[in-house]
Design goal:
- The structure is a single chain.
- The protein has about 270 residues and is α+β, with helices and mostly antiparallel strands.
- It is about 20% helix and about 30% strand.
- Strand 5 and strand 6 form a beta hairpin.
- A 10-stranded mixed sheet has the order 1-8-9-10-7-2-6-5-4-3, covered by helices on one side.
- The chain has 2 domains: about 160 residues, no CATH class; about 90 residues, no CATH class.
- The longest helix is centred in the C-terminal third of the chain and has 22 residues.
Length: about 270
Amino acid sequence: MEASVPPFDTSLVDFENPPVVEVALGIQFEEPVTSDGRTLGRFWPTVREDYPRLEQQPGLPPQSEEFGPPAPPSFEFLTGPPPARHWLLNEPGDWLIQLQPDRIMLNWRRVSEGHEYPRYEALRPLLRTHLDTLLGLPDGPNADQAKPDWVDVTYVNQVVSGSASEYPSLSSILTLISDSPDSLPPIEHSTFTQQHVVRNGDEPVGRLHITAQPGIRNADRKPLYTITLVARLKVSEPTLDGAFTALDGGRALVVETFRDITEPSMHAEWGIEG
């Protein structure tokens, strides 16, 4: 299946009680825009009051989407340690800035039941504020020199079973799944994955990744499905405005796709509003 990149739309479908448990917005750059010293010595002090916790994580490899025939395997020899990725967290851990030399990410995570999702309209300007602060620091590239090349929009949703021991039927959640034949024993649980090429006209500009994985909710050990949608899109204009335009398109694609691939009975449960 192929999809096109929709424009930013504030009238997208919405849910009163969406099952979203995490949203991440990420921008990757062609060249590094920060370093360990610049991140910790210059940027962190500007946000430390709101993000007092610091964790170091392994760096992420470059993220992109390749099109055309599969390329033969290649080998790359590392000449030094991979770049670090720094997590800057608020005290509860529900807001998280991720920084490594070639990218910035902002995550919101539901850390307790009843924790309300703040919506994309809150995440987007906050990411822009942090990025403007980072690029406004001395001894580094400014906004005109930073060249974003790819963006990621990730939405993680969890649908919990009403049973204490049995998984919900994935076909009762996703329109993409069919019931199994009666000749088969009952399904215990399912795993689902699908990729869609995203196009701007005839040109491939990214992919939409959809996965569903069975799991267990830590709070009460109830079975659940984690449904993740990731839109990874190439930035058509390598500017900050171009990156945020791509984020808007990725968000619209994810939100509209989630509506289209989930069952109307789930929409009623989540309180569909648009």
